[in-house]
Design a protein that fits this description.
four-stranded antiparallel sheet, 13 strands
Length: 189
């Protein structure tokens, strides 16, 4: 689109529809018609449907990944100072820069432990607790489209049937489309 209006004193935003059709590829957006941007202004490209901010790559392009259940996306390109961007982001916060699974805390634990993780882009996600024999003990998260954000979940030492598990070492596995990792934790009684 070439219909970018000039900026107010605080900024401006434009709501767009990105039609992807049958394309199963990533789509790269280049914002070439924004003109001279004031030094104290920033640019945010928001996916209003999936509720996340598209990160720019090193070339200044914004990447919209393919998701099988979307043929189009509502995007918002916002340019302005921090106050303007905060007022016009529809509650979409800045996404984490990368996937992250933190070590549980406390560890060792008795009762409940907390697990923090970050999701920088919508993704299928599964977080599972395994015993040291590799048997699934508890599925904490199963999502086909987990939203972007900073999260924390808890595990209370119960299996999928609601039974308390034995003391010992357990593994928690984080499995997304783009990132997989596993960490150890110790349950004491």
């Amino acid at each position: 689109s070439g219909d970018f209006q000039s900026y107010s004193n605080d900024g401006n935003y434009w709501d767009l529809t990105l039609n992807t059709g049958d394309s199963e590829s990533q789509i790269f957006l280049t914002l070439a018609e924004l003109g001279e941007i004031p030094e104290d202004f920033n640019i945010r490209v928001l996916n209003m449907d999936l509720r996340y901010e598209l990160p720019p790559n090193s070339s200044g392009q914004y990447t919209q990944r393919y998701f099988s259940n979307h043929a189009s996306y509502r995007l918002r390109v916002a340019v302005g100072n921090e106050d303007f961007l905060a007022k016009n982001d529809e509650g979409i916060t800045i996404a984490p820069e990368e996937f992250r699974l933190a070590q549980n805390f406390p560890n060792p634990f008795n009762g409940e432990t907390r697990i923090q993780y970050d999701i920088p882009e919508p993704t299928a996600l599964r977080v599972v607790i395994y015993d040291m024999m590799g048997r699934e003990v508890r599925e904490l998260i199963q999502s086909s489209a987990h939203p972007v954000g900073f999260y924390e979940i808890g595990w209370n030492g119960l299996d999928d049937h609601g039974h308390r598990v034995a003391s010992g070492i357990y593994l928690f596995s984080f499995q997304s489309e783009a990132y997989q990792t596993t960490r150890k934790m110790v349950l004491l009684k």
